[in-house]
Amino acid sequence: MPELPEVEVVRRGLARWILGSTIEDVEVLHPRPVRAHLPGPADFAARLAGATVRDAVRRGKFLWLVLDDDTALMAHLGMSGQLVLQPPEAPAERHLRVRLALSGGGAQRQGRELRFVDQRMFGGLTLTDLVPTPDGLPAGAGGVDGAPSAPLLPPAVVHIARDALDPHLDAEALIARMRRRRTGVKRGLLDQGLVSGVGNIYADEALWRARLHYDRELAGLSAASLRRLLAHVREVMTEALRAGGTSFDSLYVDVNGESGYFERTLAAYGREGRPCLRCGTPLRREAFMNRSSFRCPRCQRRR
């Protein structure tokens, strides 16, 4: 499932190419991706037609386009969702679900389509209102250069915490909350209500860098240890952003259909049996929360 770096790569592409664009027409080819719009696909298409995209905003793994009527088109990529830009004459993708015809805006390229492609259909598009953020601060990353967005959130995102790359994250308050949690450190990193955007891949990478076992209790870690861990979370996500994200298969691509290449530099995730890049000990894969956790048994010892 895409994590913060992958969603941010998509957001940046949308901000670059479609801000200021008008949605001329909408075609829903399968109803499941718009299932959250209870009035149905026809109403979804009718409400979007004629709207202009004012901003592309992300908080954690959540992404939305702010429209000129102060509503938003929220996208969740799920396991295999893609938002790709294509010329109208491009052949339809095998798993094309929704297409939005655009005009103007962005790089002033006319006749573009924004296509939602989803093989497994766990993702979707939702039209939603916007509400003020609880703290009155920008909702998340927005604009072409990631500039602060308006202090407005979709209601479904209000409970989602700020992420490690958010300049408005109160790191010391987060550390204090972590130290009150009697749960494993990896469970804490995956808790989107505590800190958002971290998934299985980047949790394993940050814990490897911090030399922490995934089951170490948060409450038992010092504030200094948690500061170092957060610094590693920021480092690994920043590096992944530079690489365009992590793509193990063709299901994650940016808006131009290109895959990221951060998987080439992963130190822990997916490296079962391969030597630790620090000490040479073969890495282990262990069951964790219905998924896998990868660690070095020497550098990340269980206590």
What's the total count of β strands? Answer: 12
Give helix % range.
10-25%
Rg, please? 20 Å
Uncertain ranges = none
Class based on secondary structure composition and strand pairing: alpha+beta
Shape: globular
The biggest beta sheet, please?
Answer: 4 strands, antiparallel
Strand content: 15-25%
**Numbering strands along the chain, what is their spatial order in the largest sheet?**
1-6-7-5
Total count of helical runs of at least 4 residues = 6
The rounded distance between the terminal residues' Cα atoms is 30 Å
Order of helices and strands: HEHEEEEEEEEEHHHHEE
Q: Average the pLDDT over all residues and give the rounded result.
A: 91
Task: Report what the structure shows.
With 303 residues, the protein is an alpha+beta fold. It contains six helices and twelve strands. The protein has helices spanning 4-18, 41-48, 171-178, 185-190, 200-210, 223-242; strands at residues 22-28, 53-59, 62-67, 71-76, 81-86, 96-103, 112-118, 124-129, 131-132, 152-153, 284-288, 291-295. α1 (4-18) crosses α6 and α5 (200-210) packs across α6 (223-242). The longest helix is centred in the C-terminal third of the chain and has 20 residues, at 223-242. It starts with a helix and ends in an 8-residue tail after the last strand. The mean pLDDT is 91.
